Amino acid sequence: MLTLLFASPANWDEYREVLPGALEAAGIRAQIFTLENQPAPDQVDYLIYAPSSPLQDFTPFTRAKAVLSLWAGVERIVGNTTLTQPLCRMVDPWLTEGMVEWVVGHTLRHHLGMDRHIVNPDHVWDPASPPLARDRRVAVLGLGALGLACARALQGLNFAVSGWSRTAKDIAGLPTAHGADGLRATLAAAEIVILLLPKTPETENTLDAAALAAMPKGAVILNPGRGALIDDAALLAALDAGQIGHATLDVFRVEPLPKDHPFWSHPGVTVTPHIAADTRPASAARVLVENIRRGEAGEPLLNLVDRARGY
Ligand code: NAP
User: Fold this and answer.
1) Which of the residues 63, 261, 274, 280 is marked catalytic?
2) Residues near ligand 1 with C-beta < 6 Å?
């Protein structure tokens, strides 16, 4: 009988419905405890965890074989020096589906110029039609679980997609680049840029003033990655100058985005409140359980975070 500690009070109500069934379906016998009802820390086999949890000291969990995060992004926990156990981030197939839908929807909005027709107070009859997707160049920065799924979905609609990542890639049918030179070339050729990078010291301000200036005039940015990927002041200046045509932002340096932040009122910015892709408990529970199964079988854990890399 395994001892699991579900250490994210904010999520317990939704997981209590699905986690026991997922464990049972995998034939895993486990007792699930919460922070209100904790076992002795040295009896815990696995922690299921969200970085927003009040639990921040992992030292007493001497037997824990892994900390399984409910979140995809781990920047708030990766530097925790008490966390010596293996850390797995969440790669949830239904979260990925949600991200693909958000990215495709917002890409199509800008590609088709939908705003001109949705808000048209002067009743202007403007029959200009957009190019086909095959003639729209889209760059996806970050080719991990989410970026690659979005790139593939956009390719499925015929968009001319390219990608950028930290390490070199060889992905069938997808032109890719990496490193600083690769970024400049990727941005220079993209009318729509989608940010799906993790927040690390290296990715902070990936879109700074110089990067924004490297993009074609009027380019559109979609940021469902992390707020810190963009230099806010440089973005506002580039929007004011018409260098950037529009930015649709889901994530921010401070969340909720403060009421007086200029993004709220800028006509070139659309704010969505960090809703691009939620973890979905029903599918995420199966991912958690698969990792517990692997841990017990001595198989490699899925989605292990590389602490040195930061993601
Ligand atoms: P992932 O699988 O870890 O992929 C990260 C990608 O970013 C990889 O392709 C990686 O390159 C690349 N990368 C990392 N550092 C880089 C650098 N310095 N330069 C260039 N590329 C770099 O992550 P994921 O699951 O796709 O998630 C991406 C991010 O989405 C998460 O970290 C999180 O911040 C965000 N997110 C947002 C929401 C939302 O609702 N808005 C939901 C979930 C996730 P390599 O392939 O070379 O390693």
Assistant:
1) 274
2) 72-73, 91, 95, 142-147, 165-167, 196-200, 202-203, 224-226, 250-251, 274, 276-277, 311
pLDDT in tens, 97-126: 999 999 999 999 999 999 999 999 999 999
Residue 116 Cα to ligand 1 middle (Å) = 32
Taking the whole predicted model, whether its pTM rises above 0.85 is answered as: yes
What is the average per-residue pLDDT within 267-292?
97
Structure tokens at 254: 């401070």
Task: Please indicate whether residue 246 is annotated as part of the active site.
Answer: no
Q: Give one DSSP letter per residue of 11-75, joined into a string.
A: HHHHHTTTHHHHHHHTT--EEEEEGGG---GGG-SEEEE-TTSS----TT-TT--EEEESSS--T
Q: Are 179 and 165 in contact (CB under 8 A)?
A: no
- The yes-or-no answer on residue 226 being catalytic is yes
Q: What domains appear along the chain, each with residue ranges and CATH number? A: 2-92+279-297 (3.40.50.720), 94-271 (3.40.50.720)
> How would residue 194 be classed by pLDDT, with cut points 50, 70 and 90?
very high
How many Cβ atoms sit within 10 Å of the Cβ of residue 13? Answer: 9
Q: What is the mean pLDDT of the chain?
A: 97
